Amino acid sequence: MFGLEVFTNTAANARPHTFATETRDPLRAHRSLPGYAPTPLRDSPTLAQRLGVGRVLVKDESERLGLPSFKILGASWASLLEVQRAWCTPSDEPVTLSSVIARLDRTTGRGLVAATDGNHGRGVARMAALLGLSATILVPAGTARSRIEAIASEHAEVHVVDGTYDEAVLASAQLADDDHLVVSDTSWEGYENAPRAVIDGYSTMFHEIDDATAAADLPAPDVVALQAGVGAFAAAALRHYRAAGPGGPTTVIVEPSGAACLMASARAGVPSKVPGPHTSSMAGLNCGLPSLLAWPVVYGYTDVFVAVPDSCAEDAMRALAVAGVTAGESGAAGLAGLLALVDSGTSRLAGLTPDSCVLVVNTEGATDPENYRRVVASA
Q1: Strands in 116-202 per DSSP E
Q2: Which of 156, 191, 226 is the last residue of a domain?
Q3: CATH number of 179's domain
Q4: Same domain? 140 vs 268
Q5: Of 281, 374, 315, nearest in space to 50 by CA
Q6: Catalytic residue among 60, 117, 222, 368
């Protein structure tokens, strides 16, 4: 039975890592997509009281560009850049959906490929449809039927791999050829362009947070909680809040107890694999191996790693529901880590004080509706 695990990273800031400079180019591209609007930044006194802090800000990604997850941000930017690089005539024009469509010389027989636990693959499938391409999405065994059906609803061909997420990634890589581009959110040796673009794509969320806090005269966060699978989302946030120089908020990464590959890697000082099966209900975080691209940023700028069992994620889902936020299992994970620290009497490890301003990100809505109804019934 898994329980709460905590690891304080003494290497944080001791190994600063230079990553590509953050720009607002992805935000410009996202604004070109149908239905773009900034997602809400919610100020939650209910959650602040539960955590014993001054303020909790919730970036609510339960609906983003018509999908129930933030993942479309990385999937869209990476898809546009990969298609432009491989199949478009050269141009100095800024990258937008219309600019890529206009320069795409052929769509027949071409497609995008991705491995996913649900949300990233659906985002890639949506982009393929917008670009007039086919989509082949690979999911690991045990993926909820509702998530498979949601991906298929984007006109994608979905294949279930008899294995873990990491094995689905390996299988997706074998499908790459001149007419099929793999758009993965994790990297491996020799494959970095797309996952780097995924990380860049997530930056839109943090620019929106900056704009929203400035407009409402809200404080910058003192503590940032980030759920993580392979580490791409976390790397985007860490770059935004910590890589610019000294200072910045205390950073907390939260993973499922049975798939805490980033914590294991931090303990070892090198990327390390956590063997499967990875069976947490936090499906989007069920990853056994860090992204080699994201790892140096994660290791260099994360203060505390927390691993939580599914029961903690369910507690956080209910707390968010009471606060008026619909959060799936992975979406609630960042808050779950902080709540677990508070309940265990170790909140000081995350820098939580009565004056703290805390940022959590609800990265997904109820992507498994049946389980969501079960969990929040007692909220």
Answers
A1: 134-140, 157-161, 180-182
A2: 191
A3: 3.40.50.1100
A4: no
A5: 315
A6: 117
Residues 135 and 184 in one domain: yes
Query: Any catalytic annotation for residue 117?
Result: yes
Shared-domain flag, residues 269 and 200: yes
Identity at 159, one-letter amino acid code: H
Q: Which residue in the list 25, 43, 59, 71 is annotated as catalytic?
A: 71
Distance between CA 224 and CA 215 in Å, rounded? Answer: 20
Claim to verify: residue 208 and residue 286 sit in the same structural domain: yes
Range of the domain at 161: 71-191
> Could you tell me if 202 and 342 lie in one domain?
yes
Any catalytic annotation for residue 71? yes
Q: Are residues 43 and 84 in the same domain?
A: no
Going through 67-205 in order, the beta strands assigned E by DSSP cover 111-115, 134-140, 157-161, 180-182
Q: Looking at 191, 209, 226, which one is the last position of a domain?
A: 191
Is residue 193 exposed (0-12), middle (13-18) or buried (19+ Cβ within 10 Å)? Answer: middle
For residues 166 and 225, give the distance between their C-alpha atoms in angstroms, rounded to a whole number. Answer: 25
Residues 6+ apart with CB under 8 A from 287: 117, 165, 166, 186, 229, 230, 259, 261, 278
Distance in angstroms (rounded) separating the CA atoms of residues 30 and 76: 8
Asked if 58 and 205 sit in the same domain, the reply is yes
Give the pLDDT of the chain (379 residues) as one tens digit per residue.
Answer: 468 999 999 988 765 555 667 899 999 999 999 999 999 999 999 999 999 999 999 999 999 999 999 999 999 999 999 999 999 999 999 999 999 999 999 999 999 999 998 799 999 999 999 999 999 999 999 998 999 999 999 999 999 999 999 999 999 999 999 999 999 998 888 999 999 999 999 999 999 999 999 999 999 999 999 999 999 999 999 999 987 667 799 999 999 999 999 999 999 999 999 998 999 999 999 999 999 999 999 999 999 999 999 999 999 999 999 999 999 999 999 999 999 999 999 999 999 999 999 999 999 999 999 999 999 997 7
Assess whether 203 and 321 both reside in one domain.
yes
Q: What is the C-alpha to C-alpha distance for residues 119 and 185, in angstroms, rounded to an integer?
A: 11
| Total number of domains in the chain | 2
Q: Which of 307, 228, 230 is nearest to 272 (CA)?
A: 230
What does pTM read for this prediction?
Answer: 0.94
